Amino acid sequence: MRILVFNAGSSSLKFGVYDMGAAESLCLKGSFDRFRDGSCELKLTVGGARHDAVLPCADLAAAIAAVPGLMAAHGVSGVDAVGHRIAHGGPGFAAPARLDGPTMAEIEALTPLAPLHNPANLAAIRLAMQVWPEVPQVGVFDTSFHLSAPGFATTYAVPEAWRAAGLRRFGFHGTSHKYVALRAAEVIGQPPERLQIVSCHLGNGASVCAINRGRSMDSSMGLTPLEGLVMGTRSGDVDPGIFGFLSRRLGLGVAEVEAALYNDSGLKGLTGSPDMRDAEDRAAAGDTAAQLAIEIYAYRARKYIGAYAAAMGGMDALVFTGGIGENSASMRRRICDGLEFMGVTLDRDRNMRVDLADRAAPELQAWGGRVRVIVTETQEQLQIAREVAVSLRAAAPVRLSLPVAVSARHVHLSPAHVQALFGGPLTAEFDLRQPGNFAAHQRVRIEGPKGGFDNVRVLGPARGRTQVEVSRTDTFALGIEAPVRQSGDLDGTPVVRLVGPAGAVETDGLIIAARHIHMHPDDAARWRVQDRQEVEVRVSGTGRDMTFSDVTIRIQPGAFTEMHIDTDEANAAGVYGAAEGALIAGD
Fold first, then answer.
1. The whole model's pTM is what?
2. How far is residue 371's CA from residue 354's CA, in Å, rounded to a whole number?
């Protein structure tokens, strides 16, 4: 399958053609950049050879129109699909989408939230539809990756009527951050689900993302791509009170202030140029405004990195990408300096000798550094091509029925804690449907700083490590914030007190169990799903029909196939007893 990808940004156009067979291969890639005085710079790579030039393209529209001719000149044709990077998909696009009239209208309606990006994305789509009218056009959305972020990270503390109107944080550069997380995991040799990564996409547009165990937890951009870091022409974080201040002091209207925050702020507002290369050249020549701009840029990025490491409870890797992140050794050093207390130690020589050829992702941390410091080319186009290929290969969804079980708060204990709490072994009261598991006669009290729960069921047999499973509602009663985790993923979890008839213990392992499906291997083979695959399950007939996304398959020998949800999820879906769910999975 050959896929052409357009990545139209606010000040650049990247494109690529990929063969997405058993082995991924790049046929051609290029970028248009530095639009000035009616021309721009073209960087084109075909078969490993560079073909750089200056073309008479005054803007992104002219650059997009030039792409078909460039492809034809180098013998690249016959694309099976065109994939498009789309900046803002709002809350409705959680996955790639086929682009048609209604979908285009939805994207266009979101233009006020991404005025520098969505119009350029739409222009690329319309041109591609004219050039390749019979070829599927697929949109991949920057915001999709961040829809997994929890409500406490996406909710603004504003009146409810505003929130009901759609005011919330989204986050952008999602395709880049997703690729970076996967690439860093490859380098480290661990699955993304085991890592806590801070990804820094630093370019004309810039954002930092907290990627907690494979999922976006928070991003520096918000409702629009204005929030967060200092950018080329965008301000990043400002006090919203500036609208009233500027109205009173300078007589500026909302539209004027907003336009200036998008187009005349950031590096441009501080130095007169939106380009970090210009700022660094001027700073080296003694320009104090450029020197201050560089210090502000680095400070803002460093502040977000520290905040996100704290939010995740740790950081395994710090990854730099984007034009500045990839190419500015001095900016990487400025950002990392001062983070030694977190385990970030940069090797100065490695930092100066970065080579990103052939998808390289070199590590820059000093010898013995606890946190990996990695730099890699973002490869957004490749990630878009991957997602387009997967979406087109997927067959019509298969719907399969399975039982849904509600899991109330309970505890799994280690042998040492069984002895400390009860003075003897667990005894079974009744068997559970999962073979070899039972509900014990023994009960414990769970205590937190705010309150506790008596008579909490203990499940057996004993495990290698104690695990306490509660609902989100329970965490408020306990006064402890607990992460959503898969069973057994307990590193960095909060400590809670357990009290039994023979004693008490303080233990970590408090989690909100991620929804999951225990599945027998025969059912997995019949339904064509894999271990750790995420699927959707539609629970209906309860009066509150609901589709649960991000349900993880856990294939176990001898397992009884059933879905487990907690009491909060059951209440939301109206499940008060036995229920059935329809598993939705593609090939």
1. 0.84
2. 18
| Cis-peptide, bond into residue 425, ω within 30° of zero | no
Q: What does DSSP assign to residue 514?
A: P
∠ Cα 28 73 21 (to 5°): 35
Domains (ranges, CATH) in the chain? 1-141 (3.30.420.40), 178-378 (3.30.420.40), 395-587 (no CATH)
Select from 97, 92, 81 the least CA-distant residue to 140.
Answer: 97
Range name among 274-283, 387-396, 419-428 with the lowest pLDDT average: 387-396
- Token digits for 315? 């950081």
Per-residue pLDDT at 395 exceeds 50: no
Q: How many CB atoms lie within 10 A of CB 320?
A: 28
- Active-site choice (33, 142, 287, 489): 142
List the helix and strand counts (H, then E) for the chain: 19, 29
Query: Backbone dihedral region of 558: left (phi > 0), alpha (psi from -120 to 50 degrees) or beta?
Result: left
Residue (of 323, 334, 246) closest to 296 by Cα position: 334
Q: Is the pLDDT of residue 472 over 60?
A: yes
The more confident residue out of 549 and 301 is 301
Report the pLDDT value the prediction gives residue 396, as an integer from 0 to 100. 46
Q: Return the amino acid letter for 310.
A: A
Are 139 and 386 in contact by the 8 Å Cβ rule? The answer is: no
142 catalytic residue (yes or no)? yes
